[in-house]
Amino acid sequence: MNALMKKTILILGGSSEGFALAERLEANSAYHPISSLAGRTSLPRKPVGAYRTGGFGGPEGLANYIQTENISALIDATHPFAQNISSNANQAAKSVNCPIIHISRPEWQKQKGDHWIEVNSMQKAALALSPELGPAFLTIGRLELSAFLHRNDISFFCRAIEPPKQTDPKKQKISNPMREDEWPDNFNFIYAKGPFSYRDEKTLFKQHSFKAIVTKNSGGEKARAKLDVARDLNIPVIMINRPKTPDDQTVQTIDEALNWLENL
Ligand code: NAP
């Protein structure tokens, strides 16, 4: 197909689905995908095909980008907890009449033997930890750790892709006030990037004697082993429920999103 006849598809990414979608669309001669990454990590995985990095400047900036780049459809494949960009995408797409779909992978479901304490915010997760639940394993990334700062009565192991650091507060929901070496002694850091296997997670849980784990209900396979280990070791999980999903069209898989695209 003539390059000019290809439909340009903007993928809002930063998730496994975003990377997989870029690969699938790039392999299809009908489409020219452009992936968009927020640019949070210093060595991000690069998507297949064209990509751009950094915020658009709110819904207006995104609407402007859609028009300038002649985008035929917008696929919001951002992480289920990336709420601002999803809402911006809705507003932007509506304002310029661009078709949009959201991919939201299924949530993790509680299973027999699980001891989940479900909460609706990071602040409530911090309050849900009683002191005897330390050391607690925080698998919430590095951007929202500040919510646990007041808990000097419990020790934490915080797992993130890279160290917390002072960054532009405008680009973050909650800016971290300190670099790693400035955090109180009860905060320990582990740097690692998934996927994480059951075996490795179990070793980690035992090595540090975790008494509780705090996680967002992100869903997916890459990070679920910790829940299986917690169940097997009878460890409570403080589970942060997902924010409300957009009312607009939402699917769970990339195949469903591709079907939608083909039927436009
Ligand atoms: P957020 O709070 O929804 O977004 C904050 C701002 O960052 C947005 O308003 C937008 O800036 C910019 N932004 C976010 N995602 C973008 C993208 N894909 N392309 C261009 N700009 C983007 O998002 P977040 O929770 O900080 O997450 C940032 C990225 O990390 C997302 O792409 C998400 O898929 C990925 N991620 C998030 C989590 C999580 O737990 N939140 C976990 C894993 C991966 P402008 O308003 O200037 O356009």
Which runs of at least 5 residues are low in confidence (pLDDT < 50)? 167-174
In terms of DSSP E residues, the strand content is 15-25%
Assembly state here? single chain
Report the biggest beta sheet as strand number plus sense, adding barrel if it closes: 6 strands, parallel
Structural class: alpha/beta
Q: Roughly how many Å apart are the termini? A: 18 Å
General shape = elongated
Percent helix: 25-40%
Which small molecules are bound? NADP nicotinamide-adenine-dinucleotide phosphate
The arrangement of helices and strands along the chain is EHEEHEHEEHEEEHEHEEH
Provide the gyration radius in Å: 20 Å
Strands, total number: 12
What's the arrangement of secondary structure elements?
Blueprint: E1 7-12, H1 16-26, E2 31-37, E3 50-53, H2 58-68, E4 71-76, H3 83-95, E5 100-103, E6 116-119, H4 122-128, E7 136-139, E8 156-160, E9 187-191, H5 198-208, E10 212-216, H6 225-232, E11 237-240, E12 250-251, H7 254-262
Parallel strand pairs: 1-2, 1-4, 2-3, 4-5, 5-12, 6-11, 7-8, 7-10, 8-9, 10-11
The structure holds NADP nicotinamide-adenine-dinucleotide phosphate (NAP).
The site of NADP nicotinamide-adenine-dinucleotide phosphate has 26 residues, from strand 2, helix 2 and helix 3.
